[in-house]
Write a structure and sequence with these properties.
Helix content: 40-55%
CATH superfamily: Luciferase-like domain
InterPro entries: Bact_Lucif_Oxidored, Lucif-like_OxRdatse_MSMEG_4141, Luciferase-like_dom, Luciferase-like_sf
Protein name: LLM class F420-dependent oxidoreductase
Number of strands: 11
GO molecular function: oxidoreductase activity
Number of helices: 12
EC number: 1.-.-.-
Number of domains: 1
Keywords: Oxidoreductase
Distance between the termini: 25 Å
CATH class: Alpha Beta
Length: 279
């Protein structure tokens, strides 16, 4: 890859990102910001954050194939990547079946979308694929720079690395709550997992594949499941959990800091950056 993400990054919904926050994240030592929530194909937010920073990488996590045609995102990619060489990574994905009535051929849709990106000269090494299951991980390995799994655990990272082999990027997301009180942390973290993800088939299928039971997934998720999907505790404990992904074979892990009411994550990011040894 020509884009170097660094070991640690920050994942945040597009509605909670800004050029000002991107500058703060860069100053804390994180390597990459991931724009979540199906950002639009114009990639304007990515460009604005890149313009505002000097070395930070910006990635999309992810542009949704159902809502943004390849023909729309390809010229945006060319504009942004041309202006900021080696600092932009296009993450794309098929989303989940509950989001669209057209979700009838998901695997074929991914293949056709990647084919079209090829035809439009979006480089393989400039894109990654949202991937959880074996077939899509294979596509990520064969047709893109690698995989960006969401709502996973280090156990999934280990199996994904085995599937991808040594040459592909593996960059999972992991939610975090910096709170020493496990009850309070679960109270904050559970809604971020339950709605919508515990009602979406692709995520629940992946959790079952990892050994979680229907009882774990039901009723907002068992405490054990929430603890697995939302790292909580002191900044040092959360940092150790994130590092488990790297130990399991990830190249990069991006933390999604869960805060009450989408409040400013900067104080928690500052504590986390210190615990990770970034500053």
């Amino acid at each position: 890859m020509t884009v170097s993400l660094g070991r640690y990054g920050v994942w945040r919904h597009a509605s909670g990102l800004s050029p000002e926050l991107a500058r703060e994240i860069e100053s804390l030592g994180f390597g990459t910001v991931w724009i979540g929530g199906s950002p639009p194909g114009d990639l304007q937010l990515a460009e604005d954050m890149l313009d505002a920073t000097g070395s930070l990488v910006v990635a999309t996590g992810i542009v949704n194939m159902w809502s943004t045609p390849a023909d729309e995102v390809a010229p945006s990619y060319e504009r942004v990547a041309g202006k900021h060489p080696d600092r932009f990574l296009l993450g794309v994905g098929v989303g989940h079946p509950e989001a669209t009535s057209d979700y009838t051929r998901p695997y074929a849709t991914v293949v056709e979308y990647l084919d079209r990106l090829d035809a439009l000269d979006v480089p393989v090494q400039g894109r990654v694929l949202a991937a959880l299951g074996p077939k899509v991980l294979d596509l990520a390995r064969d047709r893109t720079a690698g995989a960006h799994p969401y709502l996973t655990t280090p156990e999934h990272t280990r199996s994904a690395r085995e599937r991808l082999g040594p040459g592909s990027l593996l960059a999972p997301e992991h939610k975090v709550v910096l709170d020493d009180d496990p009850v309070a942390a679960r109270t904050l973290g559970r809604p971020a997992v339950e709605k919508p993800y515990l009602g979406l088939r692709n995520y629940t299928t992946n959790l079952r594949r990892l050994g979680w039971s229907d009882e774990d997934i039901a009723d907002g998720g068992s405490d054990a499941l929430i603890d697995a999907l939302v790292a909580h505790g002191s900044a040092e404990q959360v940092a150790a959990r994130l590092t488990e992904h790297l130990d399991a074979g990830a190249d990069h892990v991006c933390a999604q800091v869960v805060t009450a009411g989408m409040r400013d994550p900067e104080p928690d990011l500052r504590r986390l950056a210190s615990a990770l040894g970034l500053r």
